[in-house]
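Protocol step 4 of 5: obtain the predicted structure for the target chain.
Materials: sequence only (see below). No template structures provided, no constraints applied. The aim of this step is simply to have a reference model before the mutagenesis design in step 5. Sequence pasted as it appears in the construct record:
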Amino acid sequence: MSLWGRVFAAGYDGFMATTERASLGRIRRELMTGAAGRVLEIGGGTGANLPFYGAGVSQLIITEPEEPMARRLERKLRGYQLPIQVLRARAERLPLESESIDCAVSTLVLCTVAAPAQALAEVRRVLKRQGRLLLVEHVRSEDPALARWQDRLRGVWGLFGHGCQCNRATIQNLRNAGFSVGDLRREDLSKAPAIVRPVVIGAAVRDG
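Step 4 output (structure tokens):
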């Protein structure tokens, strides 16, 4: 783990606090109402989604490959009655059986994984038929001017954001991976840097 990785994990909650209060907390709360059954969250980070999981979740499995993030996540588990398991695993290689998950969750993760197509293929593999992937993800802007800035600043932002590529074509990636995306909507995050304001929110359903 790099020094910046440790610093990034330590400062993540504080850096995101304003955006969480302004818009992202509301989005997480709305999104997690759809989580039920045996739930997999990929890239759980420091555990920002934990307060929003409801009684319909019978088991929560969270993957987090970054050790500093995983340690902070595990410290937050105290006090939660929900059965939770944390796995040090990348989204591109999930140590779970095929069709064993009712619902998956991805919040600000698909912009960061090294191989988004492989990660989505793995999520689709472990989801049961017609299982849903609940997500809020940075995406390339539909505004051509902002999209060009996302492209120009991709490298710099990726260094600062510990791998975040905010200009990814995530909706198309979902389609290519075998998900139906009819329930997704676009929104801009409040109180966030301009290049990471555009997000896609909602549920993608495993086809077949």
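Step 4 remarks: Helices lie at 3-32, 67-76, 116-126, 144-152, 154-160, 170-177. The domain at 3-206 is CATH 3.40.50.150 (Rossmann fold).
Proceed to step 5.
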